[in-house]
Q: What sequence folds into this?
C-alpha cells in the first residue's frame, strides 16, 4: 500500500471507529471479519449524521424560542446527543431478522415499535429544519399576520365601548344645543320681523296707508312686544340649558381624551407584544397556514419530512434486509458461550448452595439429637430424684402411722372400718 493511502487511512481511522461504535457493533469481532466492516460503517454513519442534523434542528428551534445563541448551542449539542443515543439504542437492539435479503411480515411485526420510534424522531428532527428552509416565506406570513392583528387591535381601540358611549352622549348634547339655538334664532327673527312691521306702520303706514298711530299700529306694537318677550324668555331658558350642556361637553371631552390616551397605551402594549410574536409557536402556525394555502409548499414540506423519516428508519430496514454473515455467527457463538458459562456458574452455585444446605441440615440434626439425649438424661435424673423423695415420704408416713397405732389403736381400727 502506498504512503498516501496509509495517511488517508490513519486520518479516517478515528471516524471509522466512531461509526463502528455508533452502529452498536463489537469492534473486536469485526477485526476478525474485516469484510463485515463496511456494513456497519454505513449504519453508524447514518446514525452520526442524523444526530448532527438533529443538533442543528434543536439549536435552531431553541434559538427561535429563546433568542440566546450560547444556550442554543448547548441545547443543540444536548439534543443531538439524545437523538444519537436513541438511534443507537434502536439499531443495536435489533438483530439481523431472519437473515434473508427480503423483509418478512414477522420481521415487520418485530420491528414495528422501533420503526414507530424512528418515524416519530424523523418528524421531530424534520420540523425545525423545515422552519429554517422556509424561513423567508414564514417571516413574510408572520409579518402579514402581525399587520392584521395590529389593525384589529387599532380597530378595537377605536371601537372602545366607553369611548363610543361618550361620543354618543356628546353628539346628543350637541344636537340639543343646535336645536335650542335654532329655536332661539327663530324667536329672534320673529321678533325682528314684528318690530320691523311695527316701525314700517309708524313711519310709512305700510299696512293701513296712514303713518303714525293707525288702525294696525297698536296691534303690531303688541305683537312686537310679545315676540320680544317670547324671544327673551326662550333665550334665557335655552341659553342656561346650552351653557350647562357646554359644560357637560367640556367634561366629556376631557374624559374622551383620558380614555383615548389609555386606549392608545393599551393598544401600543398589545402591538408591542404582537410585534414580538415571532417565536417557535408563531412560526409553526405560520408554516401550517402556508401549507394549507399553498399546495406546492405543502408538497415540499412533506417530501422533507418523508426524507428524514426514511433516514431514521434506513438503518433498521438495512438490518432487516441484510443476510447473515460471519460477524453474526461469531456474535451468536459468543452469546451462546456466555450463556452456557453463566448457566454453568449458576449450576455450580446451586450445587454449592444445596451442599451447604445439606451440611447445615445434618449439623442441625446432630445438634437436635444431642439436645434430645441430654434432655433424656436430665429427665431420668429428675425421675430418680422424685422416686427417692417419694420413698422417703412413704417411710416417714409409715413411722408416723406406727406411732399413732401404738398410742391409740382403737382410733386406727375405727377409721379403717369407716
A:
Amino acid at each position: 500500500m502506498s504512503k498516501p493511502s496509509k495517511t488517508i487511512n490513519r486520518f479516517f481511522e478515528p471516524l471509522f471507529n466512531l461509526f463502528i461504535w455508533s452502529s452498536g457493533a463489537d469492534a473486536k469481532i469485526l477485526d476478525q471479519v474485516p469484510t463485515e466492516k463496511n456494513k456497519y460503517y454505513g449504519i453508524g454513519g447514518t446514525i452520526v449524521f442524523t444526530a448532527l442534523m438533529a443538533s442543528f434542528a434543536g439549536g435552531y428551534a431553541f434559538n427561535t424560542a429563546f433568542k440566546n445563541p450560547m444556550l442554543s448551542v448547548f441545547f443543540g449539542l444536548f439534543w443531538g446527543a439524545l437523538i444519537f443515543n436513541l438511534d443507537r439504542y434502536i439499531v443495536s437492539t435489533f438483530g439481523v431478522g431472519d437473515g434473508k435479503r427480503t423483509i418478512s411480515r414477522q420481521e415487520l411485526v418485530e420491528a414495528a415499535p422501533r420503526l414507530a420510534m424512528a418515524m416519530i424522531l424523523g418528524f421531530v428532527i424534520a420540523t425545525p429544519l423545515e422552519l429554517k428552509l422556509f424561513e423567508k416565506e414564514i417571516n413574510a406570513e408572520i409579518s402579514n399576520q402581525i399587520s392584521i392583528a395590529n389593525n384589529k387591535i387599532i380597530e378595537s381601540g377605536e371601537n372602545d365601548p366607553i369611548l363610543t358611549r361618550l361620543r354618543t352622549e356628546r353628539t346628543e348634547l350637541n344636537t340639543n344645543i343646535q336645536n335650542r339655538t335654532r329655536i332661539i334664532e327663530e324667536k329672534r327673527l320673529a321678533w325682528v320681523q314684528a318690530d320691523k312691521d311695527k316701525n314700517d306702520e309708524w313711519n310709512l303706514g305700510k299696512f293701513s296707508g296712514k303713518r303714525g298711530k293707525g288702525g294696525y299700529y297698536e296691534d303690531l306694537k303688541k305683537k312686537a312686544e310679545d315676540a320680544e318677550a317670547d324671544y327673551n324668555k326662550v333665550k334665557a331658558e335655552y341659553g342656561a340649558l346650552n351653557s350647562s350642556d357646554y359644560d357637560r361637553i367640556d367634561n366629556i371631552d376631557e374624559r374622551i381624551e383620558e380614555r383615548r390616551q389609555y386606549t392608545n397605551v393599551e393598544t401600543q402594549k398589545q402591538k408591542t407584544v404582537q410585534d414580538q410574536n415571532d417565536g417557535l409557536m408563531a412560526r409553526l402556525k405560520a408554516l401550517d397556514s402556508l401549507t394549507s394555502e399553498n399546495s406546492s409548499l405543502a408538497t415540499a414540506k412533506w417530501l422533507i419530512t418523508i426524507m428524514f423519516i426514511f433516514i431514521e428508519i434506513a438503518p433498521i430496514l438495512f438490518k432487516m434486509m441484510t443476510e447473515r454473515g460471519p460477524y453474526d455467527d461469531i456474535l451468536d457463538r459468543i452469546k451462546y458461550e456466555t450463556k452456557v458459562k453463566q448457566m454453568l456458574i449458576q449450576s455450580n452455585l446451586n450445587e454449592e448452595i444445596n451442599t451447604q444446605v445439606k451440611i447445615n441440615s445434618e449439623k442441625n440434626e446432630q445438634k437436635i439429637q444431642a439436645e434430645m439425649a441430654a434432655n433424656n438424661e436430665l429427665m431420668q435424673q429428675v425421675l430418680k430424684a422424685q422416686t427417692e423423695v417419694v420413698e422417703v415420704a412413704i417411710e416417714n408416713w409409715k413411722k408416723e402411722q406406727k406411732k399413732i397405732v401404738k398410742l391409740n389403736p382403737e382410733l386406727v381400727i375405727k377409721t379403717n372400718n369407716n
Remarks:
- The CA atoms of residues 93 and 399 lie 100 Å apart.
- The chain has twelve helices and no strands.
- The chain has a mean pLDDT of 79.
